[in-house]
């Protein structure tokens, strides 16, 4: 151990402290573990703290899992995420006890990392550790294992019932019963087993047992009590939606791959692809861990950490690839679930667990279809109302048109009456003038002017008769008598000319 290394670790400059951490890892200075652990307790720079966590995980191994796990409660998400990677570096199977607690972390990146790390453990190992944690009597382990029981799909239904038979902690029993009510398939066998377990339970838990039994019994139809549960609209599986439920069916097929993969070629191919994706995810997870070791041992880690701890070296690229594989895995699970649903609709024989889930998916499918039909009916009803309103408007428009026509006819009649009255007055005036001219003829009025007046009176009389009959008056003034053909006889002309 060089003097320069110690000076860097004790420096006030975070860059130098980081250089000291890298040097300690490079030379595998295990004797510096106490100093590095002490530095973690007082380190204020989060990037140096992340480096210390990774260094302690790599150098200290399983002996320091609990110390590293304590940093999963740190308020900084970047520190919690690095603590998970450091736990993975310890190669300690029991480090998953701390990983369980991060499955419900508020930061999506931390939660995703916790699920990835927990998913790399064999289900049998997880079940063994979960049982030990549940019976440990240690508060934080009990809380963490309850989180795992709620969030992980690695625990078979019978495992929950076995835990009920082993624990005597009333609080834990009540929490496990709540998980049973949401995670365990509702069958008569489960109800009978819970009934047997109830008899040996503490009195304060028996009431909770009764509530769960009533809930499970209410989900079992009388006609199919032994085989398939009835569909309860409040079933948590239904809250996943059709796609989420199909994905869960796919997960169940993967769990029961020995029996389910022979159902159809599509299911078998899907299960094989899921296996390839899981292997790729595990390989990339190992490369992420190796990348952390490499960055610490070979230098260059500090500058990259200043940007983002989650993007050390090629880790950012690997994380993107992991995200793509995870999305492909979900899509593949949905396709497997859709194939199982198709087999269920064709009345094919399925394992009990898959049959129950397929029935729920069929229920959601039928519900979606009914809602679509209802929406179509509501749309048709709406458009029928629109068509009725349009017809009413057309009818009202027709009535308005008829009223307008009658109004125009009335105005025309009034106009014709006014014109007839005007013509009558003009005719009266002409007649008066004719009478005066007749008197003037006696005293020598010219015959031509007299004949013109008689002609105008005749025209006015004809126009008045036409107007009163409702016809339009002839256009243009009467013709000049001088333009009449030769030999034409004007009314009264011969008599007056004598």
- Major β-sheet profile: none
Proportion of strand residues: under 5%
Low-confidence stretches: 221-229, 298-302, 306-312, 471-498
Helix content: over 70%
CATH class of the domain at 1-153: Mainly Alpha
| Backbone structural class | mainly alpha
Order of helices and strands: HHHHHHHHHHHHHHHHHHHHHHH
Structure description:
The chain is mostly helical and 498 residues long. Among the domains are: 1-153, Alpha Horseshoe (Leucine-rich Repeat Variant), CATH 1.25.10.10; 355-497. Helices cover 74% and strands 0% of the residues. It contains 23 helices and no strands. The termini are far apart.
Provide a short characterization of the protein structure.
Helices cover 74% and strands 0% of the residues. The chain has 23 helices and no strands.
């Amino acid at each position: 151990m060089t003097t320069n290394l110690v000076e860097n670790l004790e420096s006030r400059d975070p860059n130098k402290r980081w250089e000291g951490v890298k040097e300690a890892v490079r030379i595998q200075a295990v004797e510096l573990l106490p100093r590095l652990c002490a530095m973690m307790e007082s380190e204020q720079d989060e990037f140096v703290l992340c480096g210390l966590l990774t260094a302690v995980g790599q150098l200290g191994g399983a002996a320091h899992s609990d110390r590293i796990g304590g940093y999963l409660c740190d308020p900084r998400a970047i520190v919690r995420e690095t603590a998970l990677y450091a736990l993975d570096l310890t190669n300690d199977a029991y480090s998953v006890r701390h990983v369980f607690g991060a499955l419900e972390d508020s930061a999506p990146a931390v939660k995703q990392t916790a699920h990835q790390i927990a998913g790399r453990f064999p289900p049998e190992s997880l079940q063994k550790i979960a049982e030990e944690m549940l019976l440990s009597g240690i508060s934080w382990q009990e809380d963490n294992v309850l989180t795992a029981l709620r969030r992980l799909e690695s625990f078979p239904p019978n495992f929950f019932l076995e835990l009920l038979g082993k624990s005597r902690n009333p609080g834990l029993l009540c929490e496990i019963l709540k998980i049973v009510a949401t995670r365990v398939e509702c069958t008569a066998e489960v109800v009978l087993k819970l009934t047997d377990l109830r008899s040996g339970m503490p009195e304060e838990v028996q009431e909770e047992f009764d509530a769960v039994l009533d809930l499970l019994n209410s989900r079992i139809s009388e006609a199919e009590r032994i085989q398939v549960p009835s569909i309860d609209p409040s079933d948590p599986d239904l809250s996943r939606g059709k796609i989420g439920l199909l994905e869960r069916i796919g997960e169940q097929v993967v769990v029961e791959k020995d029996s389910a993969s022979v159902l159809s070629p599509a299911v078998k191919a899907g299960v094989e692809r899921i296996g390839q994706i899981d292997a790729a995810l595990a390989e990339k997870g190992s490369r992420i861990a190796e990348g952390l070791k490499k960055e610490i041992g070979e230098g260059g880690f500090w500058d990259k950490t200043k940007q983002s701890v989650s993007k050390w070296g090629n880790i950012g690229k690997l994380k993107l690839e992991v995200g793509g594989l995870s999305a492909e895995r979900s899509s593949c699970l949905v396709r497997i679930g859709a194939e199982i649903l198709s087999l269920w609709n064709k009345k094919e024989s399925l394992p009990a667990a898959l049959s129950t889930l397929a029935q729920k998916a069929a229920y959601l499918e039928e519900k979606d279809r009914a809602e679509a039909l209802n929406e179509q009916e509501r749309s048709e009803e709406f458009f029928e109302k629109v068509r009725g309103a349009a017809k009413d408007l057309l009818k009202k428009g027709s009535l308005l048109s008829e009223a307008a026509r009658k109004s125009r006819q009335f105005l025309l009649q009034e106009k014709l009456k006014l014109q007839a009255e005007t013509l009558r007055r003009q005719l009266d005036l002409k007649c008066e003038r004719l009478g005066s001219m007749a008197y003037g003829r006696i005293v020598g009025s010219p015959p031509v002017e007299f004949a013109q007046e008689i002609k105008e009176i005749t025209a006015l009389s004809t126009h008045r008769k036409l107007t009163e009959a409702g016809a339009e008056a002839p256009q243009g003034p009467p013709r000049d008598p001088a333009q009449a053909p030769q030999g034409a006889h004007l009314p009264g002309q011969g008599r007056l000319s004598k």
